[in-house]
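Query protein
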Amino acid sequence: MIINGMPDHLHLLIGLKPDCNLSDLVRTIKANSSKWINENRFVVEKFQWQTGFGAFSVGTSSVDAVINYIKTQEEHHRKKTFKEEYIEFLEAYQIDYNINYLFDCE
């Protein structure tokens, strides 16, 4: 497992068992981390995550590349925004999306 991110997003690489419900896992991560951030007063306002999330699966042979990618987020986002990068992922992997449902924080 690895986690790293920027002020507007996080990347996690986690191993899941086949019977794991991804939506339940993300909901648990968001709920527990929000509670911890707010209890420790790491931000002035009440912290909360955006509604949605994106998830991509990777094969074992790609794990090292994904770890490196996650470790170098700051450097990576000097070249392109998270939104630009996310849309590139969706298009590269031919995932249908509606731009109206992406990035409601803008």
Remarks:
- The two ends are 30 Å apart (CA to CA).
- The chain has one domain: 2-101.
- The first strand starts at residue 2 and ends at 6.
- The mean pLDDT is 90.
